[in-house]
User: Fold non-reducing end alpha-L-arabinofuranosidase from Triticum turgidum subsp. durum.
Amino acid sequence: LKVDASSQLARKIPDTLFGMFFEEINHAGAGGIWAELVSNRGFEAGGLHTPSNIDPWSIIGDDASIFVATDRTSCFSRNNIEDGKTYNLVMYVKSAEAADLTVSLASSDGLQKLASVTVPVAGTSNWTKVEQKLIAKGTNRTSRLQITSNKKGVVWFDQVSLMPSDTFKGHGFRTELISMLLDLKPRFLRFPGGCFVEGEWLRNAFRWRESIGPWEERPGHFGDVWHYWTDDGLGYYEFLQLSEDLGAAPIWVFNNGISHNDEVSTAAIAPFVKDVLDSLEFARGSANSTWGSVRAAMGHPEPFPVKYVAIGNEDCGKKYYLGNYLKFYNAIRESYPDIQMISNCDGSSKPLDHPADLYDFHVYTDSKTLFNMKGTFDKTSRTGPKAFVSEYAVWRTDAGRGSLLGSLAEAAFLTGLEKNSDIVQMASYAPLFVNDNDQTWNPDAIVFNSWQQYGTPSYWMQKFFRESSGAMIHPITISSSYSGSLAASAITWQDSRNSFLKVKIVNFGSDTVSLTISVSGLQASINALGSNATVLTSSNVKDENSFSNPNKVVPVTSQLQNAAEQMQVTLAAHSFSSFDLAL
Ligand code: AHR
Assistant:
């Protein structure tokens, strides 16, 4: 494997190349990264055919004598309550007669009380906001929040919330999940979906306006594509905040008047266009502007730097896509000339018939096909808009619940994107998260439940690429009888102290391969001290991680004693290796 590391043939990779796509799918947000422990906190959760209900709350105690006015109630189970941790309770209560309410964190059978507080409610027809801190005196992985009264009578509740007090930066995000994201150094965050943005029907699509302002006032909505209710605590503002907290450029995917089953005609799209312009003013406007002032009131007077928007998701070819697209495109270009706009139409093999800065490219396929797709952008025209590979993954037949095999094919595909990063500007794996209690889409990069999390091999694979954004890419050639099952790339990059040459090689085949890596054209010599080899492999290519064995397939780093301009390396069968050579 020859690397020409001379500066003449080097090319800078875009600073934005590798980032993340966050979709509200698999309870990635509600019941996931958003740390709220209560579901349906306003008792308004609905579904396709039930516009409002209070599921998953339910009656505890003597249900023969307890009458719940809204049909059903329940306490949210499957929560992790940790010993010594503080939980902030907020709820709104109204009762015509005075009563003492006891709010507890209990085991799912109600027998073990981890924390309890008694709240007197005065007899009044006004709503009262109750705020309490509950400090857990024990740990329970399947805990519930329960509310009981010392008297019979009518008590009204609304907006019952329980948040752990130790969320990331106090912004409401689960710290341990955020740290897994930070480890990948994402350069952008595409949000909030996917199909979640579209909805099966427009009435159930994500609406940014309904997801901002005080959380108590957000109506929430039923995501009908992935079939669950979200209180929209993780709303448009919180997504922008999340981008900032991750140091990632926000990419706002907005609904373009098209869902899976219905469309707004171009003749009627004007209010939707205005709505999107308002969303941009909310993000970017000064604190004195109409919508910027709403953002400022929420605690962020400085604008959020939205520089990219996607006009819909996977809607190219639908009846009103192009017409609607052009209305959005022209209006945004006029008001925000610097915003880059992403079309849903694939321009990788033929030019687009409409203006765009980037086009979306999605691929979910089997491992062999994705491995072979590493050259997808080799022949793409260099003059048109750039590609945004905003969703890629191996799925179905050989994906398992996230296998080594899938991750190797994905890694090969990414080396192809690095090489074509003069035309590919961004790429992100999908989906990012799955709550193990409700998996809609398989596989995913990060699996979690109420108290544990692990990365699938696809997660760890992405870590090999975290230095690529903004690095220099160098030409390589491979001459080997195994070259058909190899994929590789070489970059130089630097951290705050040192420079490195990083050679990544995927061995997709079932034979061990010996290679000589020869590097020419370096300005500095390779230093064995500080040089490492990191390998992702396992005894079986179908191996996966799990809660019981989260580290079965994870990268292993060792010192590279023989690091030099010419060095012999051995690639294990079905492996991904990164040779990090200190300069
Ligand atoms: O990533 C899951 C789904 O796949 C996304 O919502 C959609 O864009 C694609 O079809």
Summary: The radius of gyration is 26 Å. Residues 15 and 35 are 31 Å apart (CA to CA). Residues 70-78 have pLDDT under 50 and may be disordered. The first strand starts at residue 2 and ends at 4.
